[in-house]
Amino acid sequence: MIRGLKAMYRGDNHFNLVGRSRLFLTISILAMVFSAGSLVTRRLNLGIEFEGGSLWVVPVTADVSEGDVAAAAGRGGLADQAVQFVNEQGTRKARVTSRSSDPALVDHVNAELASLPGASADTIEVTSVGPTWGSQISRKALQALIIFLILVTIYISLRFEWKMALAALACLIHDLLITGGVYSLVGFEVVPATVIATLTILGYSLYDTVVVFDKVQENTSLAAQTARQSYSDTANDSLNQVLMRSLNTSLVVLIPVGALLFVGITRTGTSVLKDFGLALFVGILSGTYSSIFFATPLLALLKEREPRYQQIRARLVSRAGREPLPRRPVVKVDEAATDQGEAAEEEVAAEPVKAPAKAGGKGPARRPARGGSRPRPSGGKKRSGGKRRR
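RE: above sequence
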């Protein structure tokens, strides 16, 4: 195991991530459907900044219970109060929230809460937001999210291509749904800090996706020229090359965010730290998963439908299914026999060749030159294009 981890950190991993794209896409789709169902059935616990209402923060003593605070708020006229206790700078405080923002009701509740042990009219903090203002804030947050997604889609389409932009957009929707589903399950309150954290994690997820897509585009452009690999195989190799970079970056970010979430839950109770830390922690986990196991496999499925990559895959399949040619038998040569044959040829070449005497008492004919040239005819006549030898 340790050897495998070392190999991963050196980048020597060869995981078939794109080859299991159907499994990862199925997991992602099921998680998205489950999160969407949770958002529909349980809904988000929106803060008063989005739906309007009132918030009272009352310092109380340690012997004051949740029932005491709820009873005091009920005497003031509240029927939908929600009470939570927090510790802020060593002081125990009760947070009372309601959807009502009527000024007269707020004053009555303020007076009743001031009668609790440890509280006074001067120490109670009251925040009241009207329903019109809350709807405006919600609408502006939704507009900011839509504008962000549109700009991201345009940028990736210009920088890479529209199929990569579509995969990145699906990746961002995946992260949004899962983060919202977790918020609806745990019941944490959605405050403006949650919106800021959501936009932050979308930017982080987009950064991780762009890093992977850049490596995929670099390798696939070379592979398309050589036609030695399919798009899915090249994308899988690219994903393995940047896998540890993505995991290390996410791990470095998750450690401080996890510490922030731990402090927000254990030390200060319900606070901005808890809401902000939960959105960041869940979003970074989801963004890391989606950029590796969702965006790239989805991109590979889209690109494999292009005609040129279908031709490359068909050529590779036919090449892989072709039977190998029979190998020619290797003839072993006896080096000793070869040397003896070469020596015999040299001895024969060294001996003079004796030809029979011609009629007329003339001497033997001249031996032909080595290389197969015919003897020069007698008579001493010069051939055309040549010179007479003496």
